[in-house]
């Protein structure tokens, strides 16, 4: 294949634009901000589960507390009725009086036990309420952090897209200056290797980074300026420049 030296040099500019586009696309796929958003999404999901569990536990303890307090009220009411009978002198039989006094004493003990249960439930409720508040606050912080990370991700993605659009426009302009057959060969090689054209830089191919043999360099020195060369190792288009060391 033949192509004017200036067209071959322009191919390096096309490759530079393609590399910049590929680099921008890689950055877009691997944004640190996107990873941060994914991590925060996972954290938020975990915290929401914990928040539901904390609210459920608090609701269960509330029911337990209401029942315990109701039990205390029932025992207290019964004891009050017994005392009222006792104070009103409604019991005349010594045996019945002894039984009533014994029942009042038993109810007092039972009330004390139930009040201990209420205190224990109240302590557990206080701990559960603190846990629910802590999880809720942590969830709010995570959601706020996620919102900020999403804003940073959007800003970074927009910046990359602007860069990619600029390079695509530049690439389109440059490609118009390259002959169709040369551009087609370059495109084929770029699709295969990621890099379709590379400069010969002081005897080394910038595509594969390997030094060319003495024999190959001798052949290149003898080749016409418009001959399209290929690297003997990586088979990419090899473009001669003022820094080729020939």
Automatic annotation (TrEMBL):
Transmembrane segments: none
Matching Pfam families: CT398_CC, Zn_ribbon_9
Domain named C4-type zinc ribbon: residues: 204-238
Entry-linked InterPro entries: CT398_CC_hairpin (IPR056003), Oxidative_Scav/Glycosyltrans (IPR052376), Zf-RING_7 (IPR003743)
Biased composition (Basic and acidic residues): 63-86
Region (Disordered): 63-97
Domain CT398-like coiled coil hairpin: start-end pairs: 14-194
Top-level division of the source organism's lineage: Bacteria
Protein name as catalogued: C4-type zinc ribbon domain-containing protein
Organism: Nocardiopsis composta
């Amino acid at each position: 294949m033949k192509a004017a030296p200036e067209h071959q040099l322009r191919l390096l500019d096309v490759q530079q634009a393609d590399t910049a586009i590929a680099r921008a696309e890689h950055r877009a796929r691997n944004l640190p901000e996107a990873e941060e958003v994914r991590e925060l999404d996972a954290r938020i999901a975990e915290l929401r589960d914990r928040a539901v569990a904390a609210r459920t536990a608090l609701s269960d303890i509330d029911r337990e507390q209401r029942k315990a307090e109701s039990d205390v009220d029932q025992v207290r009411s019964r004891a009050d009725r017994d005392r009222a009978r006792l104070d009103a002198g409604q019991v005349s039989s010594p045996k019945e009086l002894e039984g009533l006094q014994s029942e009042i004493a038993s109810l007092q003990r039972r009330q004390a036990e139930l009040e201990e249960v209420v205190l224990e439930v109240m302590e557990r409720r206080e701990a559960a309420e603190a846990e629910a508040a802590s999880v809720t606050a942590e969830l709010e912080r995570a959601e706020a952090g996620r919102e900020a990370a999403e804003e940073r991700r959007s800003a970074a993605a927009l910046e990359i897209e602007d860069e990619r659009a600029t390079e695509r426009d530049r690439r389109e302009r440059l490609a118009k200056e390259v002959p169709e057959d040369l551009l087609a060969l370059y495109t084929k090689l770029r699709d295969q290797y990621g890099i379709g054209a590379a400069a010969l830089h002081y005897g080394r191919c910038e595509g594969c980074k390997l030094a060319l043999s003495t024999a190959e360099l001798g052949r290149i020195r003898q080749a016409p300026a418009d001959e399209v060369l290929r690297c003997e190792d990586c088979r990419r288009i090899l473009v001669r420049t003022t820094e080729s060391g020939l």
